[in-house]
Structure formats: structure tokens, C-alpha cells
Amino acid sequence: MKSGFLAALLAIPLILSGCSDQPGSPAADRKAEPLQVETIRPVTETSAPREFPGSVAASRLLPMASRLPAYIRSVPHQEGDLVKRGEVIAVLDDSDVRSIREQACADVKAASIRLRDAETDVQKFEGLYRDEAASEIELRKVKLLRDQTAETLRAARARLTQANERLGDAVIRAPESARVLSIQLQPGTLAVPGLPIVTLESLDGQVFEIHLPAELLGSVKPGDPAAVTLDGRTAPIKGTVTQAVHSADPVTRTGVVKIALPKGDRILTGTFGRAAIAGNASEKGIFIPKSAITNRGGLDGCFVIRDGHAEFHWLRLGTTLPDGSREADAGLKGDEILIKSPPSSLTDGAPVKAIPDPAAAAGAAP
Predict the structure, then answer these.
(1) Bridge partners for 179 per DSSP
(2) Is the separation of the CB atoms in 270 and 199 below 8 Å?
(3) Are 275 and 259 in contact, with CB atoms under 8 Å apart?
(4) Residue 63 neighbours by CB distance under 10 Å
(5) pLDDT, tens digit, for every residue of 136-171?
(6) Is the pTM higher than 0.85?
């Protein structure tokens, strides 16, 4: 009896130890194999082309403003209409100018009549002076009156010429063939000199405008190639830098760069897109390969291997490179080991093991 009881007591630890290895127990979890993953490192310096957002704009804008203050009678075109050179863009109320013109016409006629009379008097007194029937003072007076009348006539004609010119300003015409980009003032509103009524865009060509950071302005120059990808189009458009301002705005710390687009393909002004420009200088930063970027809970980030476990890092992503890499403005130091193409089942804190790089292993072999 005693020997059987002792044998039962000795068997209890063996039974308990066998139960602890059942699937789902803590001991079994500790023995779970870590997930094997491929790794990749961020890039801290690149000279690869970078993409910058921008929009399509006309190569030249033609703001059509009034030269005289007057109310607008009509604007015969709508935004997007094509207009030819000399075509009417806006018509202003010219009633005031017509009144000035009529007054100037009347002044010219009256001064012309007085001048003819004054010239007749001068001829008459010159004859009387030769016959000594009139004094030199009388002759000088009629000549002075003639000269004053001539000056009055010249002034009246100048006012008439000015009125005719201002009357022509009441009709605003297109200086060249163009497209109506925007209408700033509608009929019935007061046109002020210098304030655009209608803005036209030239049909000479189009450009893609981007704003480059100040530190990159010196690396871009006219003639550099650029690839522009527009919303709604898959194939990039080949362009050429035509203007690169090398002075940055003190507020935004950026400068405008204009890229000429092919003339054959007319694109809607304002279309959004991105331009890839190959700068002539390398740029430092933390650039994350596209394969390492993932999304968890609506947050963009990446998994970092730390102490044999996957650690999720939230990232504030910036500029996109043409290969899909993103600049990390926050979230990484740049010396981390990233998990490449993390599976959707991978969670923060899961055990992982990096798969050895075959190329590195071959280089290390004797």
C-alpha cells in the first residue's frame, strides 16, 4: 500500500508538466516560432528625381482692364470661350465720353469760325497799316487776337482727339487670339482703371507650375528635363524647365519653377499633377522604401525590428519619389532595420526573425 501511494505522488509532477505543454498554454506561446521576415533599411541621402505637386497654367495671362471709369454694359463671352484678335471682350457705358466729345466738337467749330474772322481782320489791318490808316498798335492787337484764337482752336482739337480715344476705350477688344480664363466684373458694375474685367489666357502654350523648397532652387536651371504626371492620366508628359526663380519667398521659403508643356495637347488650366525633376545635387533626409510602408488603424507607418520583436512606428510622410519611396518627416532616426512587405497579420510586439540576406551571406563565405 505504501509503495503504491509513493508512486502516485511521484507521477503528479510528470502529469502537471505534460499538461503545461498543451496548445494555447503560456509555455506553448513562449515556444512559438518567430515570424521570418525580409528586412530593408531607409536611405539617408538621395539624388534621385523628386516629385513636387503643382498645376497647369497658361504661359501668359492677359488681364483686360478699362482705361476709364465707367459702368459695364455687357461682357459678351463666357469663361472658356475662344476669342479672336480684335473681338469685343467688354463694352462700357460711354454716355459721359460722348457728351465730352460733342462739347469738344462744338468748341472746335466755334474756334474755327473765330479764327477765320481774326485772319480776315489781320489782312484788313495790314492793308490799312500800309496806307497809314491804322496804327502799329492796332495791327498788333488784331494779330494777338488771331494767335489767341488759333491756340484756342488747337486746344479744342486736342480735347476732341482725347474724347475720340476715350470713346474707343469704351470697347475693350482682345489683343490676340486667346481663351477667356475668368470674368472678374459683371455687367452693371463699375469698371475702375487698372482693375481687370476679364482675364484671357494666351494660346501660345502652357506651363506646369511648382513651388520648390529654397534649398533645391539652386539645383534646377532652365533646360532641365522634367516628367509631369497629371490627374486622370497614367502616362507622364515630357516637359522642360523654362523658368526657375532663384530667390525664395520669405514666408513660404519656396520659389516658382515653370515647366513648358507640349503645345499640341491642350490641357485644362488648373489641372493638378506632380512633376519629377532630377536635381543636380544630392539631398539628405530619411527616405522609406515603398515596400516598407504599411497602414495600421488608418495610420501610415512601418515596422521596425527591435529586440527580436516587430515595433510599429507611425510616420509623418512627406515628398514622394518617382520609385514610390516617401520622405519621413517624423517617426524614424534613419538607422533602423525595417520589415519589408509586412503581412497584414503582423501586429505590434509580435516576435520576428530577419531572414539572412543571401547576397551578404555569399560575400561573407570563405
Answers:
(1) 82, 201
(2) no
(3) yes
(4) 14
(5) 888 888 889 888 989 988 998 998 888 888 887 888
(6) no
One-letter identity of residue 301: G
Q: Give residue-wise pLDDT tens across range 327-363.
A: 788 878 878 888 888 888 888 888 888 887 554 333 3
- What is the identity of the amino acid at 296? R
Taking the C-alpha atoms of residue 288 and residue 336, their distance in angstroms, rounded to an integer, is 11
Question: Are the beta carbons of 219 and 241 closer than 8 angstroms?
Answer: no
Q: Shortest CA distance to 350 belongs to which of 24, 21, 20, 36?
A: 36
C-alpha R_g of the chain: 43
Residue corresponding to grid cell 505637386: 53
Query: Rounded distance, CA 254 to CA 213, Å?
Result: 4
- In this structure, are residues 172 and 90 in contact, taking their beta carbons and an 8 Å threshold? yes
- The whole-angstrom separation of Cα 192 and Cα 353 is 74
Instruction: Name 24's Cβ contacts closer than 8 Å, sequence gap at least 6.
Output: none
